[in-house]
Amino acid sequence: MRPPFGARTPLTLRIIRQLGLTPVMWNITCYDWKPTTPQRILAHVDRQMRGGDVILLHDGGHTEMGAARSHSVEATDLIIRKYSDQDYRFASISEMIAAPIAVG
Length: 104
Description:
Elements: H1 10-18, E1 28-29, H2 38-48, E2 55-56, H3 70-85, H4 93-98
Parallel strand pairs: 1-2
């Protein structure tokens, strides 16, 4: 579970763990919670992608329910296509946690 706004307060972390969830953070921020374009979201990923990353994308805005999210949906498609073509592999958080860390 990603804590809202990345807030990892002791109370938040305790509740997350009491619910049987694992707190997960990200290391690539795309700023898609505000109006933007799919191309700008992709540019944020391009500047930060190194491999083994967790990309933060949002399902709408943070100020209201039902905010437009088409830019994030389109950007997700662009990200998957571009990085799959470059032989990156996408994995779930569970797969990433279970995978051994590559050194080298």
